[in-house]
Amino acid sequence: MKMRTPHVIAALLLALIATPVAATGQASYAPANVVYDLTTAEPAKLANILDRVSMLQNLYGNDPFAASIVVVIHGGAIPLLAKGGRIYHSALASRAQDLAVGGMIQFRLCAASAKMQGYGQGDFEGFIELVPMADAEIIRLQSDGYAYLH
Fold first, then answer.
1. Is the pTM of this model over 0.90?
2. Alpha-carbon torsion, ordered 117, 121, 122, 125, to 10 deg
3. Which of 63, 82, 92, 106 is deepest in the core (most CB within 10 A)?
């Protein structure tokens, strides 16, 4: 029996096209390392970022060995998280601290930007790590394979 390659290929392509896609609308995503660039001075936008970070953490199975999420804070976002600052938002700071508990989510704050705004290490909760410069930290994380989100 002689096999006709073009017909076999056409049949396979037709089978692939005709195969139904899962109706759940659910995609699966492999855990990844992500860096969020946070500069907003608006509490609602910070809350939205925390929502997104939390959802991503849950999507990745809350496994700090499989994925890492780093939120780099600088610019206008700093006063939202500076204790005693002019626009300190204790509820959002508390929520961020809760997210950091498992180790999968880390919060890093630009020491240079904080200093320019009159803040120092003692103005932030202990879960926030100060880094010398936000831009350099984001670049370093990206060179280490972190996906950038704003």
1. no
2. 100
3. 82
